[in-house]
Design goal:
Urease, subunit C, domain 1; four-stranded parallel beta sheet; about 425 residues; TIM Barrel
Amino acid sequence: MKRFDLGAVSRFVCAASIILFSVASLQAADPALADLVLTGATVYPSPEAAAIPDASIVVHGGHIVAVGPRASVRIPKGAEILDCTGKFVVAGFWNSHVHILTPVLLHGRDSSVKDLNDELDRIFNRWGFTTVFDIASVLDNTLALRGRIDSGELRGPRILTVGEPIWTREPIYVRDFLNANHISIPRTETPEQAVALVRDHAAKGGNGIKLFTGSLQAGGKIEPLPLPVARAAVIEARRHSLPVFTHPQNPEGVNIAIESGVDILAHTVPDSPPWDAAFVARLKKANLALIPTLTLFDVEARKGDASDQERDAWIAKMVAELRAYSRAGGEILFGTDIGYIDHYDTAEEFTLMSRAGMTFPQILASLTTNPAHRFGYGDRTGSVVAGLDADLVVLTEDPAKGAAAFSKVQLTIRHGKVTYSAGN
Protein backbone atom coordinates (compact mmCIF):
# COMPACT_ATOMS: atom_id res chain seq x y z
CA MET A 1 0.00 0.00 0.00
CA LYS A 2 1.75 3.13 -1.20
CA ARG A 3 1.32 6.30 0.74
CA PHE A 4 -1.53 8.73 0.11
CA ASP A 5 -0.84 12.27 -1.12
CA LEU A 6 0.29 13.40 2.31
CA GLY A 7 0.44 17.03 1.30
CA ALA A 8 -3.26 16.96 0.46
CA VAL A 9 -4.05 14.96 3.59
CA SER A 10 -2.09 17.37 5.79
CA ARG A 11 -3.78 20.41 4.25
CA PHE A 12 -7.22 18.85 4.78
CA VAL A 13 -6.51 17.85 8.38
CA CYS A 14 -5.02 21.26 9.15
CA ALA A 15 -8.03 23.12 7.75
CA ALA A 16 -10.48 20.82 9.48
CA SER A 17 -8.58 21.15 12.76
CA ILE A 18 -8.75 24.94 12.67
CA ILE A 19 -12.53 24.81 12.18
CA LEU A 20 -13.01 22.17 14.86
CA PHE A 21 -10.77 24.05 17.28
CA SER A 22 -12.88 27.19 16.93
CA VAL A 23 -16.18 25.37 17.36
CA ALA A 24 -14.92 23.15 20.15
CA SER A 25 -13.53 26.06 22.15
CA LEU A 26 -17.03 27.53 22.26
CA GLN A 27 -18.75 24.23 22.96
CA ALA A 28 -16.35 23.28 25.74
CA ALA A 29 -18.21 25.58 28.13
CA ASP A 30 -21.04 23.00 28.21
CA PRO A 31 -20.34 20.43 30.96
CA ALA A 32 -22.00 17.73 28.86
CA LEU A 33 -19.30 18.11 26.24
CA ALA A 34 -16.26 17.15 28.29
CA ASP A 35 -15.23 13.93 29.97
CA LEU A 36 -11.59 14.67 30.71
CA VAL A 37 -9.34 17.72 30.83
CA LEU A 38 -5.54 17.71 30.99
CA THR A 39 -4.09 20.97 32.28
CA GLY A 40 -0.71 22.55 32.82
CA ALA A 41 1.48 20.44 30.54
CA THR A 42 3.65 21.51 27.66
CA VAL A 43 1.99 20.04 24.57
CA TYR A 44 3.81 19.09 21.39
CA PRO A 45 0.87 18.93 18.96
CA SER A 46 2.87 17.37 16.10
CA PRO A 47 6.48 17.02 14.96
CA GLU A 48 6.29 20.27 12.98
CA ALA A 49 4.18 22.40 15.33
CA ALA A 50 5.48 24.71 18.02
CA ALA A 51 5.13 23.61 21.62
CA ILE A 52 2.19 24.97 23.63
CA PRO A 53 3.33 25.70 27.22
CA ASP A 54 0.88 25.55 30.12
CA ALA A 55 -1.79 24.05 27.88
CA SER A 56 -5.20 22.52 28.37
CA ILE A 57 -6.64 19.62 26.38
CA VAL A 58 -10.40 19.02 26.55
CA VAL A 59 -11.62 15.51 25.68
CA HIS A 60 -15.17 14.35 25.00
CA GLY A 61 -16.47 11.11 23.55
CA GLY A 62 -12.96 9.84 22.96
CA HIS A 63 -11.98 12.86 20.86
CA ILE A 64 -10.04 16.06 21.44
CA VAL A 65 -12.49 18.96 21.34
CA ALA A 66 -10.13 21.77 22.34
CA VAL A 67 -6.40 22.28 22.84
CA GLY A 68 -4.50 25.47 23.49
CA PRO A 69 -2.96 27.70 26.17
CA ARG A 70 -4.76 27.18 29.49
CA ALA A 71 -5.72 30.84 29.66
CA SER A 72 -7.64 30.60 26.38
CA VAL A 73 -9.40 27.24 26.82
CA ARG A 74 -12.52 27.24 28.96
CA ILE A 75 -12.62 24.30 31.37
CA PRO A 76 -16.12 22.77 31.50
CA LYS A 77 -17.73 22.04 34.84
CA GLY A 78 -18.02 18.43 35.86
CA ALA A 79 -15.11 17.10 33.82
CA GLU A 80 -12.38 14.97 35.37
CA ILE A 81 -9.29 17.16 35.54
CA LEU A 82 -5.80 15.72 35.39
CA ASP A 83 -3.17 18.16 36.62
CA CYS A 84 -0.19 17.66 34.32
CA THR A 85 1.84 20.62 35.49
CA GLY A 86 5.49 20.08 34.68
CA LYS A 87 4.69 17.22 32.30
CA PHE A 88 4.81 16.93 28.51
CA VAL A 89 2.04 15.68 26.23
CA VAL A 90 2.42 14.17 22.78
CA ALA A 91 0.17 12.08 20.56
CA GLY A 92 -0.22 8.40 21.37
CA PHE A 93 2.67 6.25 20.19
CA TRP A 94 2.63 3.66 17.43
CA ASN A 95 4.86 0.59 17.64
CA SER A 96 4.95 -0.66 14.06
CA HIS A 97 6.78 -3.92 14.81
CA VAL A 98 5.45 -6.15 17.58
CA HIS A 99 4.43 -9.80 17.93
CA ILE A 100 1.44 -11.13 19.86
CA LEU A 101 3.49 -14.15 20.88
CA THR A 102 4.22 -13.90 24.60
CA PRO A 103 2.92 -16.85 26.66
CA VAL A 104 -0.02 -14.88 28.07
CA LEU A 105 -0.97 -13.13 24.82
CA LEU A 106 -0.78 -16.42 22.92
CA HIS A 107 -3.97 -17.33 24.76
CA GLY A 108 -5.81 -14.11 24.03
CA ARG A 109 -9.16 -15.81 23.83
CA ASP A 110 -8.97 -17.68 27.13
CA SER A 111 -6.53 -15.92 29.49
CA SER A 112 -8.05 -14.04 32.42
CA VAL A 113 -8.71 -10.32 32.29
CA LYS A 114 -6.18 -9.70 35.05
CA ASP A 115 -3.41 -11.70 33.38
CA LEU A 116 -4.00 -10.04 30.03
CA ASN A 117 -4.23 -6.53 31.46
CA ASP A 118 -1.01 -7.08 33.39
CA GLU A 119 0.71 -8.30 30.22
CA LEU A 120 -0.67 -5.50 28.07
CA ASP A 121 0.58 -3.00 30.65
CA ARG A 122 4.01 -4.59 30.79
CA ILE A 123 4.49 -4.72 27.02
CA PHE A 124 2.45 -1.89 25.50
CA ASN A 125 0.52 0.49 27.77
CA ARG A 126 3.47 1.17 30.08
CA TRP A 127 5.46 2.54 27.14
CA GLY A 128 2.84 4.86 25.67
CA PHE A 129 1.64 2.66 22.82
CA THR A 130 -1.92 3.38 21.77
CA THR A 131 -1.58 1.55 18.42
CA VAL A 132 0.59 -1.45 17.59
CA PHE A 133 1.13 -3.36 14.35
CA ASP A 134 1.64 -7.05 14.99
CA ILE A 135 3.69 -8.34 12.07
CA ALA A 136 3.65 -12.10 12.66
CA SER A 137 1.48 -14.10 15.00
CA VAL A 138 -1.42 -16.54 15.02
CA LEU A 139 -4.16 -14.57 13.28
CA ASP A 140 -7.22 -16.11 14.96
CA ASN A 141 -5.71 -15.61 18.43
CA THR A 142 -4.66 -12.03 17.73
CA LEU A 143 -8.10 -11.18 16.39
CA ALA A 144 -9.66 -12.64 19.56
CA LEU A 145 -7.37 -10.49 21.73
CA ARG A 146 -8.18 -7.44 19.65
CA GLY A 147 -11.89 -8.10 20.06
CA ARG A 148 -11.59 -8.21 23.84
CA ILE A 149 -9.71 -4.91 23.85
CA ASP A 150 -12.13 -3.22 21.44
CA SER A 151 -15.12 -4.36 23.50
CA GLY A 152 -13.69 -2.57 26.56
CA GLU A 153 -13.07 -5.80 28.47
CA LEU A 154 -9.30 -5.18 28.41
CA ARG A 155 -7.08 -2.10 28.60
CA GLY A 156 -4.88 -2.05 25.57
CA PRO A 157 -3.84 -0.45 22.32
CA ARG A 158 -5.48 -0.61 18.95
CA ILE A 159 -4.06 -3.79 17.39
CA LEU A 160 -3.42 -4.07 13.67
CA THR A 161 -2.14 -7.45 12.51
CA VAL A 162 -0.72 -9.41 9.58
CA GLY A 163 -1.33 -12.79 11.21
CA GLU A 164 0.77 -15.65 9.85
CA PRO A 165 3.59 -14.55 7.53
CA ILE A 166 4.52 -15.79 4.07
CA TRP A 167 7.75 -17.77 3.93
CA THR A 168 9.08 -20.68 1.91
CA ARG A 169 10.84 -21.91 5.01
CA GLU A 170 10.59 -20.68 8.58
CA PRO A 171 13.69 -18.96 10.03
CA ILE A 172 15.87 -21.20 12.17
CA TYR A 173 15.54 -18.94 15.21
CA VAL A 174 11.77 -19.48 15.53
CA ARG A 175 11.50 -23.23 14.95
CA ASP A 176 11.93 -24.29 18.56
CA PHE A 177 9.41 -21.67 19.66
CA LEU A 178 6.84 -22.77 17.09
CA ASN A 179 7.26 -26.43 18.00
CA ALA A 180 7.11 -25.80 21.76
CA ASN A 181 3.86 -23.85 21.37
CA HIS A 182 2.33 -26.20 18.80
CA ILE A 183 2.09 -23.43 16.23
CA SER A 184 1.99 -24.51 12.61
CA ILE A 185 2.59 -21.87 9.93
CA PRO A 186 2.48 -23.50 6.47
CA ARG A 187 5.19 -22.82 3.94
CA THR A 188 4.17 -20.75 0.93
CA GLU A 189 5.88 -22.09 -2.16
CA THR A 190 3.72 -20.96 -5.10
CA PRO A 191 2.06 -17.72 -6.23
CA GLU A 192 -1.32 -19.42 -5.90
CA GLN A 193 -0.67 -20.27 -2.25
CA ALA A 194 0.41 -16.68 -1.59
CA VAL A 195 -2.78 -15.30 -3.13
CA ALA A 196 -4.89 -17.72 -1.07
CA LEU A 197 -3.21 -16.67 2.18
CA VAL A 198 -3.70 -12.96 1.45
CA ARG A 199 -7.37 -13.49 0.62
CA ASP A 200 -7.89 -15.54 3.77
CA HIS A 201 -6.26 -12.94 6.01
CA ALA A 202 -8.15 -10.06 4.39
CA ALA A 203 -11.47 -11.87 4.80
CA LYS A 204 -10.83 -12.55 8.48
CA GLY A 205 -9.92 -8.95 9.30
CA GLY A 206 -6.16 -8.84 8.90
CA ASN A 207 -4.62 -5.42 8.32
CA GLY A 208 -1.44 -6.25 6.40
CA ILE A 209 0.81 -8.96 5.00
CA LYS A 210 4.31 -10.01 6.07
CA LEU A 211 6.83 -11.60 3.72
CA PHE A 212 10.16 -13.18 4.61
CA THR A 213 12.02 -12.24 1.44
CA GLY A 214 15.13 -13.47 3.26
CA SER A 215 14.85 -16.26 5.83
CA LEU A 216 17.90 -17.21 7.92
CA GLN A 217 18.68 -20.94 7.96
CA ALA A 218 21.27 -23.18 9.62
CA GLY A 219 24.88 -22.34 8.90
CA GLY A 220 24.05 -18.76 7.97
CA LYS A 221 22.34 -19.71 4.71
CA ILE A 222 19.57 -17.32 3.69
CA GLU A 223 16.52 -18.71 1.93
CA PRO A 224 15.03 -16.13 -0.47
CA LEU A 225 11.33 -15.87 -1.23
CA PRO A 226 10.90 -16.48 -4.98
CA LEU A 227 10.09 -13.23 -6.74
CA PRO A 228 6.90 -14.60 -8.40
CA VAL A 229 5.58 -15.57 -4.95
CA ALA A 230 6.38 -12.14 -3.52
CA ARG A 231 4.83 -10.36 -6.49
CA ALA A 232 1.65 -12.41 -6.30
CA ALA A 233 1.30 -11.63 -2.60
CA VAL A 234 1.84 -7.90 -3.11
CA ILE A 235 -0.56 -7.67 -6.05
CA GLU A 236 -3.28 -9.44 -4.08
CA ALA A 237 -2.56 -7.29 -1.02
CA ARG A 238 -3.08 -4.18 -3.18
CA ARG A 239 -6.54 -5.45 -4.10
CA HIS A 240 -7.42 -5.45 -0.41
CA SER A 241 -5.58 -2.19 0.44
CA LEU A 242 -3.21 -4.02 2.77
CA PRO A 243 0.34 -2.77 3.43
CA VAL A 244 3.11 -5.32 2.92
CA PHE A 245 6.02 -5.70 5.34
CA THR A 246 9.15 -7.73 4.72
CA HIS A 247 11.96 -9.26 6.71
CA PRO A 248 14.77 -8.82 4.17
CA GLN A 249 17.87 -10.23 5.98
CA ASN A 250 20.29 -9.47 3.11
CA PRO A 251 20.59 -7.38 -0.09
CA GLU A 252 18.90 -10.11 -2.15
CA GLY A 253 15.94 -9.94 0.22
CA VAL A 254 15.86 -6.15 -0.22
CA ASN A 255 16.00 -6.53 -4.01
CA ILE A 256 13.04 -8.94 -3.95
CA ALA A 257 11.17 -6.47 -1.75
CA ILE A 258 11.82 -3.59 -4.16
CA GLU A 259 11.01 -5.57 -7.30
CA SER A 260 7.79 -6.95 -5.86
CA GLY A 261 6.58 -3.60 -4.52
CA VAL A 262 6.80 -4.15 -0.74
CA ASP A 263 6.00 -1.12 1.45
CA ILE A 264 7.96 -1.54 4.69
CA LEU A 265 11.30 -3.04 5.71
CA ALA A 266 10.71 -4.60 9.12
CA HIS A 267 14.38 -4.23 10.12
CA THR A 268 17.63 -2.72 9.07
CA VAL A 269 19.59 -5.34 7.12
CA PRO A 270 22.17 -7.30 9.15
CA ASP A 271 23.74 -9.22 6.24
CA SER A 272 24.40 -6.16 4.11
CA PRO A 273 27.43 -4.10 3.12
CA PRO A 274 27.38 -0.45 4.18
CA TRP A 275 24.49 1.49 2.68
CA ASP A 276 25.92 3.79 0.05
CA ALA A 277 24.10 6.63 -1.69
CA ALA A 278 23.01 4.46 -4.62
CA PHE A 279 21.48 1.81 -2.35
CA VAL A 280 19.67 4.40 -0.25
CA ALA A 281 18.37 6.07 -3.42
CA ARG A 282 16.86 2.76 -4.53
CA LEU A 283 15.07 2.38 -1.21
CA LYS A 284 13.71 5.91 -1.40
CA LYS A 285 12.58 5.54 -5.02
CA ALA A 286 10.64 2.44 -3.97
CA ASN A 287 8.96 4.53 -1.23
CA LEU A 288 9.99 2.01 1.40
CA ALA A 289 9.53 2.84 5.05
CA LEU A 290 12.13 1.47 7.47
CA ILE A 291 11.57 0.12 10.97
CA PRO A 292 15.06 0.08 12.56
CA THR A 293 14.51 -2.27 15.60
CA LEU A 294 18.02 -1.36 16.81
CA THR A 295 17.63 -2.81 20.29
CA LEU A 296 16.94 -6.21 18.71
CA PHE A 297 20.55 -6.48 17.59
CA ASP A 298 21.84 -5.75 21.08
CA VAL A 299 19.53 -8.44 22.49
CA GLU A 300 20.49 -10.98 19.82
CA ALA A 301 24.21 -10.32 20.29
CA ARG A 302 23.94 -10.91 24.03
CA LYS A 303 21.87 -14.04 23.44
CA GLY A 304 24.59 -15.31 21.11
CA ASP A 305 27.35 -14.65 23.66
CA ALA A 306 29.07 -12.14 21.37
CA SER A 307 31.94 -10.21 22.85
CA ASP A 308 31.34 -6.59 23.80
CA GLN A 309 33.44 -5.54 20.83
CA GLU A 310 31.42 -7.70 18.43
CA ARG A 311 28.14 -6.49 19.87
CA ASP A 312 29.15 -2.83 19.67
CA ALA A 313 30.26 -3.28 16.06
CA TRP A 314 26.98 -4.94 15.09
CA ILE A 315 24.92 -2.21 16.71
CA ALA A 316 27.08 0.48 15.10
CA LYS A 317 26.44 -1.12 11.70
CA MET A 318 22.66 -0.99 12.21
CA VAL A 319 22.86 2.57 13.51
CA ALA A 320 24.82 3.55 10.39
CA GLU A 321 22.10 2.08 8.14
CA LEU A 322 19.44 4.09 9.95
CA ARG A 323 21.61 7.19 9.76
CA ALA A 324 22.06 6.80 6.01
CA TYR A 325 18.35 6.39 5.31
CA SER A 326 17.13 9.03 7.74
CA ARG A 327 19.61 11.63 6.47
CA ALA A 328 18.44 10.96 2.93
CA GLY A 329 14.86 11.71 3.95
CA GLY A 330 13.66 8.10 4.06
CA GLU A 331 10.57 7.46 6.12
CA ILE A 332 11.22 5.91 9.54
CA LEU A 333 8.65 4.05 11.63
CA PHE A 334 9.30 3.23 15.28
CA GLY A 335 9.30 -0.45 16.17
CA THR A 336 10.99 -2.76 18.65
CA ASP A 337 10.15 -6.41 17.79
CA ILE A 338 8.72 -6.88 21.29
CA GLY A 339 6.97 -10.18 21.63
CA TYR A 340 9.92 -11.79 19.89
CA ILE A 341 12.42 -10.12 22.21
CA ASP A 342 11.54 -9.56 25.85
CA HIS A 343 13.36 -6.24 26.30
CA TYR A 344 10.31 -4.02 26.71
CA ASP A 345 11.97 -0.85 27.99
CA THR A 346 12.12 1.55 25.02
CA ALA A 347 14.85 3.86 26.34
CA GLU A 348 17.67 2.08 24.50
CA GLU A 349 15.83 2.24 21.17
CA PHE A 350 15.33 5.99 21.47
CA THR A 351 18.94 6.50 22.52
CA LEU A 352 20.21 4.54 19.52
CA MET A 353 17.90 6.44 17.16
CA SER A 354 19.36 9.66 18.53
CA ARG A 355 22.85 8.26 18.03
CA ALA A 356 21.90 7.74 14.37
CA GLY A 357 21.34 11.48 14.13
CA MET A 358 17.56 11.51 14.36
CA THR A 359 16.22 14.72 15.88
CA PHE A 360 13.34 15.15 18.33
CA PRO A 361 10.85 15.96 15.53
CA GLN A 362 12.03 12.99 13.48
CA ILE A 363 11.71 10.53 16.35
CA LEU A 364 8.30 11.95 17.27
CA ALA A 365 7.20 11.57 13.64
CA SER A 366 8.34 7.93 13.63
CA LEU A 367 6.08 7.34 16.65
CA THR A 368 3.05 9.32 15.48
CA THR A 369 2.44 11.02 12.14
CA ASN A 370 4.53 8.74 9.93
CA PRO A 371 2.73 5.50 10.83
CA ALA A 372 -0.65 7.20 11.14
CA HIS A 373 -0.42 8.45 7.54
CA ARG A 374 1.35 5.39 6.17
CA PHE A 375 -1.36 3.05 7.45
CA GLY A 376 -4.34 5.27 6.64
CA TYR A 377 -5.14 6.67 10.11
CA GLY A 378 -3.92 10.22 9.63
CA ASP A 379 -7.44 11.62 9.80
CA ARG A 380 -8.03 9.91 13.16
CA THR A 381 -4.84 9.93 15.19
CA GLY A 382 -1.16 10.92 15.27
CA SER A 383 -1.43 14.57 16.37
CA VAL A 384 -2.79 16.50 19.34
CA VAL A 385 -5.36 18.61 17.50
CA ALA A 386 -9.09 19.13 17.87
CA GLY A 387 -11.18 16.59 16.02
CA LEU A 388 -8.79 13.67 16.28
CA ASP A 389 -8.96 10.71 18.65
CA ALA A 390 -7.77 11.47 22.17
CA ASP A 391 -4.75 9.15 21.89
CA LEU A 392 -2.24 10.83 24.18
CA VAL A 393 0.95 10.18 26.13
CA VAL A 394 1.94 12.21 29.18
CA LEU A 395 5.70 12.18 29.79
CA THR A 396 7.56 13.15 32.93
CA GLU A 397 10.58 14.51 31.05
CA ASP A 398 10.94 16.76 28.01
CA PRO A 399 11.63 14.64 24.89
CA ALA A 400 12.91 17.72 23.08
CA LYS A 401 15.88 17.71 25.49
CA GLY A 402 16.74 14.01 25.29
CA ALA A 403 15.36 11.11 23.29
CA ALA A 404 15.22 8.70 26.25
CA ALA A 405 12.48 10.93 27.71
CA PHE A 406 10.06 9.28 25.26
CA SER A 407 10.26 6.23 27.54
CA LYS A 408 9.34 8.17 30.71
CA VAL A 409 5.59 7.63 30.54
CA GLN A 410 3.30 8.96 33.26
CA LEU A 411 -0.04 8.34 31.54
CA THR A 412 -1.20 6.56 28.41
CA ILE A 413 -4.63 7.58 27.12
CA ARG A 414 -6.37 5.78 24.28
CA HIS A 415 -9.56 7.22 22.83
CA GLY A 416 -10.03 9.34 25.91
CA LYS A 417 -9.60 6.51 28.44
CA VAL A 418 -6.57 6.09 30.67
CA THR A 419 -5.00 2.73 29.86
CA TYR A 420 -1.91 3.21 32.03
CA SER A 421 -0.98 5.40 34.98
CA ALA A 422 2.44 5.28 36.58
CA GLY A 423 0.81 6.13 39.89
CA ASN A 424 -1.23 2.92 39.92
